[in-house]
Amino acid sequence: MKKIAILALLVAVAAIVIACAAPTPEPTKAPPPPPPTTAPQPTAAPKPTEVPAAKPTDAPKPTVAPTVGKPLKIGLLTDQTGALAIYGPMLENGFALGLQYATDGSNAVAGRPIQVVTKDTASKADVGAQVARDLIEKENVDMLVGVPSSGVALAVNELAKQYKKIYIAQPAAATEITGKNFNPYVFRTGRSNEQDALASGAALLKLGKTFVQIAPDYAFGYGSATGFYKVVKAGGGKFTINDSDDKVGAIYIPQDAKDFTPYLQKVLDAKAEVLIVTWAGAGFVPLFQQMQQLGVFKAMTVYTGIGDNQTLKTGFTNAVGVKGINVYHYTLPQNPVNDWLVKNHIAKFKTPPDLFTEGGFTAAQMLVAGLKGTNGDPDPDKLIKFYENNFSFDGPKGKYSVRPYDHVMLQTLFVAEITNVTDPDFKYVKLAAEIKPGDFTPSCTLEGEYKSRCPK
Q1: Do residues 142 and 72 lie in contact, with contact meaning Cβ atoms separated by under 8 Å?
Q2: Given 3-state DSSP classes, what are the helix, strand and coil percentages for the chain, each rounded to the nearest 5?
Q3: CA distances from 313 to 31, 215, 241 (A)
Q4: DSSP-derived 3-state class of residue 448
Q5: In b/e form, how buried is each residue of 364-381, taking b as 16+ CB within 10 angstroms?
Q6: How big is the CA angle at 151 (ends 254 and 91), to the nearest 5 degrees?
Q7: Are 161 and 185 in contact (CB under 8 A)?
Q8: Given strand 409-410, what is the order of strands in its sheet?
Q9: What span, in angstroms and rounded, lies between the C-alpha atoms of 413 and 356?
Q10: Helix 150-163 crosses helix 219-234 at what angle (to 10 degrees)?
């Protein structure tokens, strides 16, 4: 039996009480309490006219606590239902903890409290677009963050440009978000499909010379398949079917498929040495179960992603001992920020952080850093200028850096080995190697009016 290789593919507001201490009461002068030295002048009321000189709530900067000031409204797009609903809680929990960490527990920036309005996109582009539009038009949000689905993220890209709102994409991985569908209002904290592919290119070409791949039939799958195709072809590999720039050696499967048999039969008929699998969401488990039933693992080497903890537990019982690229597993990074995230996530949610918890956390870090840089002003032009000025920060995976010309987020990926799928604390992997941002360089894929932003 051939070995199996695994690749990662791949998202309290402080209360203020202003106590107004009443002056010491004068029993014989019960009406307006006069100053002790001016008891005969109650009707002149001189003191009230001087009150405006001590109005801290009208001028937040001097001594006002963080909750004073107009709230900063953030629209958090998530998936609570739909094909990618497994990732929604990870994004939401990570974002909440990221705000807590980045604001030192105040949940405010420059005297302005952060108000998060969370909406479900159901993993559907049309639903997500309408939800994002409602957040902008009805909720009057200042910025947008999310979403797990790449199809939804691409729709939100266009709305960010139309309404001139900063959109931080996370954890959607479609390369197009900061590629051919780029606009200056869109940034990302997640990695792209191309970063996944580039980070694993050398490993892929050690597994064989002929390839075939399967991917979900939407933006995430297209981007991933294209990325892997380019890497394999550049290294001298060949695809046994659909070997062209438009078909990229892939068999696309509907995202909501339940029966994978006809697609997997095409895979077997391709007679390749290596099968590259891109998938996301709950369908991962039945896909792998049917691959086992049809003998795919015996026929070829399977190269896929080390995903979330539940998927590892239920779908990788026969994959112990394999290695692959991983976006994030809470046991891998060794730094103070990740230590804080793990400790506080377990304390609050009674379970360790998962695959895209880190992504929600870093999105919150980036959002807060930008607003601090503009002194609480969500003006998009000011934020763009800040983020494009060599912006970087330390997060759960180490250093994150925005590439100014296309807003790709440069970050670390991991090579991990699956050691078990039974540990009660989800300690399923061990670190084999870290792939630092400087170890691979994503291409600039901007098109049209933005193509000139790419370095020559």
Answers
A1: yes
A2: 35, 15, 45
A3: 73, 22, 32
A4: helix
A5: bbbbbbbbebbebbbebe
A6: 105
A7: yes
A8: 392-395, 398-402, 409-410
A9: 13
A10: 110
Token pair 């699956």 in the structure block, residue: 418
Nearest to 290 by CA among 331, 253, 258, 317: 258
Please give the backbone phi and psi of residue 319, each rounded to the nearest 5 degrees, phi first.
Answer: -115, 15
| Coil, helix or strand at residue 77 | strand
Alpha helix stretches (DSSP H) within 103-214: 125-137, 150-163, 193-205
Say if residues 90 and 132 touch (Cβ distance below 8 Å).
no
Query: Angle CA(390)–CA(395)–CA(398) in degrees, nearest 5?
Result: 85
Task: Identify which of 145, 173, 202 has the alpha carbon closest to the alpha carbon of residue 327.
Answer: 173
**Cβ pair 249, 211 in contact under 8 A:** yes
Structural domains of the chain, ranges and CATH numbers in brackets: 5-10+194-326 (3.40.50.2300), 72-192+332-411 (3.40.50.2300)
Amino acid at 276: I
- Cα separation, 122 vs 82, in Å, equals 4
User: What is the residue whose two structure tokens read 């001992």?
Assistant: 321
Q: How far is CA 179 from the centre of its chain?
A: 17
Name the DSSP class of 443.
P
Do 153 and 177 meet the contact criterion of CB atoms below 8 Å apart?
Answer: yes
Report yes or no: 325 and 7 within 8 Å, Cβ to Cβ: yes
Which of 108-122, 219-233, 311-325, 329-343 bottoms out in mean pLDDT, i.e. has the lowest? 311-325
Tell me if the pTM is above 0.90.
Answer: no
Query: Cα–Cα distance between 216 and 220 in angstroms, integer?
Result: 7
Which residue bears the tokens 């998530």?
A: 78
Does an H or E element contain 172, and which?
A: none
Number of H helices, E strands in the chain: 12, 18
Interatomic CA distance for residues 339 and 359, integer angstroms:
15
Which residue, 270, 298, 274, is CA-closest to 208?
A: 274
Where residue 2 falls among pLDDT bands split at 50, 70, 90? very low
The predicted-structure confidence for 391-408, as pLDDT tens digits, reads as follows 999 999 999 999 999 999
The residues near 203 (Cβ < 8 Å, ≥ 6 apart) are 5, 7, 323, 324, 325, 415
The DSSP letter of residue 450 is G
Residue with tokens 């026929």: 299
Query: Which secondary structure element, helix H or strand E, spans residue 277, and what is its range?
Result: strand 274-277
pLDDT, one tens digit per residue, over 292-311 is 899 998 899 888 888 899 98
